[in-house]
Amino acid sequence: MRDHFEVRDHDAAGRIGRLTVPRAGVTVETPALLPVVNPNVLTIEPRRIRETFGAELLITNSYIIRSTDRIRDRVLSDGLHEFLGFDGAIMTDSGSFQLAEYGDIDVTTAEILEFQRRIGSDIATPVDVPTPPDADRERAERDLETTRTALADAVAADTGDMLVNAPVQGSTYTDLREQAGRHAAGTDLDVFPVGAMVPLLNAYRYADVVEAVTAAKRGLDPDCPVHLFGAGHPMMLALAVAMGCDLFDSAAYALMARDGRYLTVSGTDHLAEMSHFPCSCPVCVEHTPADLRAAGDDEAERLLAKHNLHVTFEEIRRIKEAIRSGTLLELVERRARGHPAMLDGYRALLDHADQLEATDPVSKGTFFYTSHESARRPEVSRHHDRIARLTVPETLLLTESKPPSSHDYDAVWRVKPPFGPFPRALSETYPLTAETPERTDCAAQLAAAEGVSRLVEANPDTAVTLGHADWDPAALAVVPDRVAIEDITELGR
Asked: Up-side HSE of residue 113: CA atoms within 13 Å toward CB?
């Protein structure tokens, strides 16, 4: 049982939690963004990041500090918090990124953990092996074994009250990711980063990110705080939280600013091509794109980095409120409309609706049906799974319209796309209070037909009649043959 992480609220697999970082003496509310601070180049001072954006946690690279003489001696003397001027919690990376980039580093897990402890890191990282996407399976298995050895070395190290990461690797092999998650959760380590995600994120392979993370989550325990390494673009944070990730490190705010790129929740714009800023953060209110282009490279980079942090922290706050109000998947759906690759990611997430349903609250605010993906949400599958529990009479009419004033049926139930059939007494219960468009699409009708099919299969002795409102033939084909079908839009014509 990990007593340093407590989950307070859920929506889908997303959660609001409290991560206690004992060495820093702080408790961080998750989901949380960790701005990446390059110890050689402070685009924005960490103190300003804390004061302006409320950052409770940041991340820097202990390997770079250890390898840079002029920085190493000062950090060893003054401590990491004093060097960065940051009084929140600090996570440090180990050099695994450099290992992935250059093939070798001159430090072991025992050595780098000891160095991280000496400089005052609050959350340390062992030297795991980030296997790139699509590597051959033999390499992925070999690298994973090396990472397991690193985790064993981390467990054996004297780390005091410093939390330690247990990275979950496995490339794009979902069974290896699940195995790695289960192994990591079985250690005494504290935070669980899903690693080697940057190549997938940079290539907009969000569906593959979803598959890797959901596989890792199947192996991890519910009390494991999950860090999605390299995920800092505001466009994909809602999706990542809905998968069950709690921590995100963002170098994107600085790297993209250096490249003249302006982050939004629906993508990335180029400063050189902009006439107006759509954002209302202080940078965008006080400056125009022309102002930044005229400001000089360093000042433009600084201001763009500030905007990028504003929009990213704003999205984190928006996500937290969506979790509290039970509208996280509605937010994910809006973000999915911003980029085709995001839509791929959302569709991949809904492939795991059963996994999401395990933690999705059974009651929350109004369900909004806004696209055919809504028909695949966990609330719909939960309703279908529970249909068999309903007590059904010998003759039953299912209808989208009001019940007829006189009829020969034992009962008249509602049928509502995408959920399907239910007694009218349940009409005011979640999710059957859903707001749906009058012109339902085929996906909603197909889901409702599946609900009818579930009811009929569970009650083979009941005579069922379905009164539908001009359903698509593909949906009607799902309805069992023994159900009598009437198009209520044809009645009285």
From this structure: 25
CB-neighbour burial class of residue 291 (10 A; exposed 0-12, middle 13-18, buried 19+): middle
Interatomic CA distance for residues 74 and 63, integer angstroms: 15
Residue 492 has pLDDT above 50, yes or no: no
Residue 128 labelled as part of a binding site: yes
Kindly report the length of the chain: 493
**For residues 414 and 402, what is the distance between their CA atoms, to the nearest angstrom?**
8
Instruction: Say if strands 267-270 and 261-264 run parallel, antiparallel, or are unpaired.
Output: antiparallel
Per-residue pLDDT at 105 exceeds 70: no
What counts of helices (H) and strands (E) characterise the chain? Answer: 21, 18
pTM above 0.85, yes or no: yes
The reply to whether 470 belongs to the active site is: no
- Max mean pLDDT among 81-95, 101-115, 477-491 falls in 81-95
Residue 79 CB-half CA count within 13 A: 11
Model confidence over 119-168: pLDDT tens digits?
Answer: 999 999 999 989 999 999 999 999 999 999 999 999 999 999 999 999 99
Query: Pick from 56, 78, 41, 49: which is nearest to 310 by CA?
Result: 49
Q: Please list the residues that pair with 468 across neighbouring strands.
A: 487
Q: What are phi and psi of 270, to 5 degrees?
A: -105, 125
Residue 187: burial class (beta carbons within 10 Å; 0-12, 13-18, 19+): middle
Whether the CB-CB separation of 123 and 4 falls below 8 Å is answered with: no
What SS3 state is found at 428? Answer: coil
* Given 93, 122, 190, 441, the catalytic residue: 93
Helix axes 206-219, 340-350, angle to 10 degrees: 30
196 is in an annotated binding site: yes
Mean pLDDT of 169-184: 97
**Six-digit token pair at 72?**
């190493």
Q: What share of the chain is helix, strand, coil (3-state, %, to 5)?
A: 45, 20, 35
Q: Which residues contact 374 (CB under 8 A, 6 or more apart)?
A: 333, 367, 368, 380, 418, 443, 444
Residue 239 exposed, middle or buried by CB count within 10 Å (0-12, 13-18, 19+): buried
What is residue 295's predicted lDDT score, i.e. its pLDDT?
92
Alpha carbon of residue 49 to chain centroid: 23
- Rounded to 5°, the CA angle 447-449-450 comes to 65
**Angular region, 466: left φ>0, alpha ψ -120 to 50, beta rest:** beta
Sort residue 12 into left (φ over 0), alpha (ψ -120 to 50) or beta. Answer: left
